[in-house]
Fold this protein.
Amino acid sequence: MATIDDRNARLRALRAEALLGGGAERIDAQHARGKLTARERIELLLDPGSFVELDAFVVHRTSEFGLADQRYLGDGVVTGHGTIDGRLVFLFSQDFTVFGGSLSEAYAEKICKVMDLAMKVGAPIVGLNDSGGARIQEGVVSLGGYADIFLRNVLASGVVPQISVVLGPCAGGAV
């Protein structure tokens, strides 16, 4: 049976893995293109120390097309809330280092969750976009994820501010 220290060590290891997104090599490639990572963008946008991440350990649920062996904690999008000049905001930052930032079903669920929370408390939603669009390996469920996000865009319209920042190539629903 695992001790509390063992479990804490495992959580620290998972957190360190999640912080790497698609890995050091892909982070270096992002920097070589003159682009920041999803987490670096959040750090620059929010008040220092205010970010609270949600669902950092989520992974996609697809096993086809070799994806069973390619699971990244966070699944290509960093979501949560923090403050800008002391004001609460909810946000998502697409991580191009994981499958080119492409949207999976689980990824869409993470975005929908922060959108729902933002509407519930009346806080703005900020999207930092850097995505190749739908994760085609998931087919219709990925496209359905866009439908869920678009529904929330409509529901949030006139209720809370929605701010989108395009920071890289965006295709399909990511536009």
The CA atoms of residues 49 and 75 lie 23 Å apart. DSSP finds five helices and five strands in the chain. The beta strands are 52-54, 77-84, 87-94, 125-129, 162-166.
